[in-house]
Structures are given as structure tokens and as C-alpha cells.
Amino acid sequence: MDELQKESTPAPDRGEPAETEISWQAPESEHHERGPLWHLSSIVVAVLLVAISLWQQNFLFAIFVVIAWLVIYFSLDREPTIFSFTAGVRGLSVGPRRYPWPDFSSFSVTVGRSENLSHIHLYPSHSFSLSLVISVPNEQFAKIKNIFHNYLPEVEHEDTIFDTLIHLLRL
After folding, report:
1. How many other β-carbons are positioned within 10 Å of the β-carbon of residue 171?
2. What are the backbone dihedrals phi and psi of residue 102, each rounded to the nearest 5 degrees, phi first?
3. What's the predicted TM-score (pTM) here?
4. Are 94 and 25 in contact (CB under 8 A)?
5. pLDDT of residue 162
6. How many other β-carbons are positioned within 10 Å of the β-carbon of residue 142?
7. 30 neighbors 78 (Cβ within 8 angstroms)
8. At what angle do helices 36-55 and 59-75 cross, to 10 degrees?
9. d(CA 90, CA 83)
10. pLDDT per residue as tens digits for the range 110-147
């Protein structure tokens, strides 16, 4: 499949101009190479947390730290899954899953954190839903962002502490 496909889709009978549909492929997340220092640091932090929790006699937290470290350590070295995305008049499709535009209230973008990928953050229109972050190849970013502008307002992106922490730790 081509990395980028454009095709015209007939507009609904509401006097609207013809819409554009765009498709692309991108990984679910960025894959970071982690050297020996990163691995050693993660072990040291996990051991310190376990030691503190045992000193505080909080055995449940010690078990949690060990399980969390094992999950993070062994899942981060796998290659990310490549997803197919399509954005057009019917909404956003991620693989077989379709999200209609009314499910989102707005979107924001983060550019420049990676040499290959930018990210579009979609904010839900329902208060109990999670935001959706999708990866976009930098070469196709402007075209894809224009499609999103047809359906949603863009807002300024504000990183949360969690976003900053994930970026700094290269998770």
C-alpha cells in the first residue's frame, strides 16, 4: 500500500464542496534505542523503590514495582506496530476502527520531537473519554493537518507532566 493516497469522495447533498480523503501508515509509537545506561538506570530506580517500600513495610507496593518494571522493561524493546490511518468525510479510521468526527471536540499538534514523526492529539467531545494521539509522517503532515481542519478546530497543545516525563524517559 502506498504511504499516501489521495482520492476525492463525493460530498453529501448539502451543498458542501467535495471532500478529500487521505490515507497513511505510521507506527503506534516511536521506537527509541536504549543503551546500557538506560537499562542500568531503570534497574537502580526499581531497586530503590522496592527498598523504600520494604523499609516502609508496604509489601504490595514492592510487588507492584517489580511487576511494573518487568512489563516496561520487556515491552519497550519490541518494534511498534504499524497502523493504517484514513481521514475523510466519514471520520478517522485507525485500522478497522472508525471514529466519527463528532466524537472529537478539537485537535492539537506536536511537531519536531522526532525527525520522522509528528503527532495529532484528538480531544474527545465526551468528558469521560480519553484523548487519542496519532502519529503522522513529517513529509505528509501538512496535507493530513489540512484534512483535520475541515472537521475540527485546532487548539494550542499543552504538554502535561506525564507527556514531558514520557518524552524525557524515552518511553
Report:
1. 13
2. -65, -15
3. 0.63
4. no
5. 66
6. 10
7. no
8. 170
9. 18
10. 876 667 788 888 888 887 877 888 888 888 888 888 88
